[in-house]
Structure formats: structure tokens, C-alpha cells
Amino acid sequence: MSSKDDILILKNESPWGSPPGGRGRGDGNGSGERRPPPNIDDLIRKAQGSVGRIFPGGRGSNKSIYLGILILLVLWALSGLYRVLPDEQGVVLRFGKFIKTTQPGLNYHIPFPVERALTPKVTKVNRIDVGFRSASDSGRSSGIGDVSEESLMLTGDENIVDIDYSVFWVIKDAGKFLFNIQSPLETVKAASETAMREVIAKSRIQSILTEGRSKIENEVQEITQGILDEYGSGIQITQVQTQKADPPDQVIDAFRDVQAARADRERSKNEAEAYANDVIPRARGEAEKILQQAEAYKKEVVAKAEGEASRFLAIYNEYKLAKRVTQERMYLETMEKVLADIDKVIIDKSSGSGVVPYLPLPEIKKKSQGGQ
Fold it and tell me: Do residue 238 and residue 345 come from a single domain?
């Protein structure tokens, strides 16, 4: 470099000189001296001299340049290697446009600036609270804050319920998640709130507050997943969990009174059913017993009547064969039955002495029984 060029550099002047009509800056005196433009050949020779100082060796310097360029190309090509961890999914972009997703492991893409890869975590379970905010979300030191505009919903039987719930979700398709929706958290929250209001509007408050929660959670999860799939969000809803389902605070005391009355009604109903279950079977048993006794008595009477009829026919047949003997026998049998259970006194009227012989048969019978 010439001494004149050194002087220009020290004076902080451009080697091209001042612009036409400009003022000189290097001399500080504002003389405005104009300089001729530099020679192109001189500039080329200066550049070659600078390269020669970096890669000495004459013609061999060209090989060094090519080797350096080759090394740079190899390093650039190797920069396209990237690793996707087991809890991640690779997303490849080409000039900012989504191209494909890659699975865990070692993968390759065309190096920057043509393509680049993102590796969002897809196994992390995310949580969104609707109807309330925990202490960490609301910024408070403790407690849970209720958000009434989200939690108050109208039921199918025209009641109002205060319901808080949480939605748990993971990334199912990282490419769709990153580029199909702008605000994933707000989208999941809005979709789940829409689904919950739809399900609550078809349910009765008694079912919501008691045994119907699990059914509501399953329906909300299904509807929310359908909405997100229509959006192509790449999000998978894993669970909808109800945290609280109560009447509004303004009417909760009256509602508890109603619940207590219903509980009393159910208790009385159960007691009445228990009493009925105790009395009715016994009454049915007694009725069945009476029916069986009547049936037995009927059979007994019929059998006895049939026996008497058979006996009468048998006696009648004998009577036709020997009338006198049969009459006397029938008389004696009848008298035996009539006199069997009465006290008897025998008086002999044939005695002519006027003294009536007396035979005390009852006393004799009693003495004989007492002696035994």
C-alpha cells in the first residue's frame, strides 16, 4: 500500500474520495479538494495480495481455498442432523412451511436456511382449569378463586349449577398443533366450555350433583375431542375431571334444605317399603294357610259324607236281607251313641214291693277311674 493511501486511512477518508461537490473531511480545513477515482486494476491486485497473505504458496493457494470451501460444505451438510428425544416429536419446516413430522431418534433435514426442525414435547400432560383458578394461576399466595362467568350453567330442568372442572390434554400431532391453531390453550378451553354447557343443558340438576358426574365427564371429553379434531388441532384430550358441582352460593342454603327434605322423604319411603315387605308376606302366608285349611276341611267333609253314604248303602243292603235283625242292631248302635256320654240311672219298675232298686253307675265309674 502506498504512503498516500496510508495518509487517507489515517485521515478516515474513503479511498473513493469525496462525492462530487462535497467537502473534504480528512484535512479538517474544509478546503473541498477533489480526488480522482481509484483504478480498478489496483483494487484487484490489492485483494489478491490480501488473499495471498492468508493462504501463502502461490498457485497452491487455490487448492487451499477449495479445501476450505469443501470443509465448510461438509460442516453445513452435517448441521442438518438432529435428534428427537422419546418425549418429543420432530417438525420439519422448509422456508418456514410445515413439511412433515418425524419420530424419536436421529433424523436429518436440509440444513439452514433451507429447512429447520422443531422438537416440541408431546408426552407432557397439560391442564386447563375452567370455572376456577388455582393459587399458582391467579397469582395469590393461597386458596382457589372462582370464575362465575365460566362456572355458572343452566341445566335441562331450568336450574343453575356452579360447576368447576379441569381438562387434561397432550399433543397428538406436533405439526398440526404448531401451525393449524394460533392459541392452543384458549382453543382447548373454549371447546371444553362449549361441550360442558351442551351436556349440562341436557341434564337434570339432581343427576349432575350426584351419580351423573362420570357420564357428564365422558360426554364432555367426547364432544371436546370432536371439536378439536374438526379444527385439525393435533391435540388429544386424555381426561375431563369435575372438581365441584354445587348450586349457586346465593341459594345453596335453600337447596340444602330441599335436599334434606328429599332425604327424609326417601327415608320414610324406605321405612314404609320395609314395613310393607314385612307385613305383606305374612298376610299372604296367613291367607294361604286359611285356603289350605279350607281345602282340607272340604276334602274331609266330602270324604266323610261319601263314607256315610257308602255305609248307609251297605246297611241298606243288609236291611233288605234281614229287616228285623238290622232294625234292632241299628237301634242298639244308636242308643249306644246317645247314652255314651250321659249319666245313667237304672230303675226297675217290675218290682212289686214299692221299693225302687237303684244302681249308681256314675259313682261306680268315677270310683273305678280314681282307683286306677
Answer: no
Q: What pLDDT digit, counting tens, does each position of 210-225 carry?
A: 888 889 999 999 999 9
Measured in whole angstroms, how far is the alpha carbon of residue 183 from the centre of its chain?
26
Q: Are 87 and 123 in contact (CB under 8 A)?
A: yes
Q: 64, 67, 39, 44: which is closest to 54 by C-alpha?
A: 64
Residues of the domain holding 358: 323-371
The three grid cell numbers given for residue 14, joined into one nine-digit string = 474513503
H-type alpha helices, 210-249? 213-231
Task: Give residue 200's identity as a one-letter amino acid code.
Answer: I
Q: Supply 150's cell numbers.
A: 365460566
Q: Is there a domain that residue 259 lies in?
A: no
CA distances from 101 to 98, 110, 262 (A): 9, 14, 57
Return the CA Rg of the chain.
59
Is the residue at 257 inside a domain?
no
Same domain flag for 130 and 192: yes
- Tell me the backbone φ, ψ of residue 211, rounded to 5 degrees: -85, -5
pTM greater than 0.85: no
Q: How far is CA 332 from CA 150, 266, 304, 311, 319, in A?
A: 108, 75, 22, 17, 15
**Nearest of 258, 262, 198 to residue 227 by alpha carbon:** 198
Q: Based on the domain organization, do 181 and 97 belong to the same domain? A: no
Model pLDDT, residue 156: 87
Instruction: Give me the residues paired with residue 36 across strands.
Output: none
The DSSP string of 176-216 is HHHHT-S-HHHHHHHHHHHHHHHHHTTS-HHHHHTTTHHHH
Angle at 131 between CA 127 and CA 133, to 5 degrees: 60
Grid cell listed for 109: 433435514
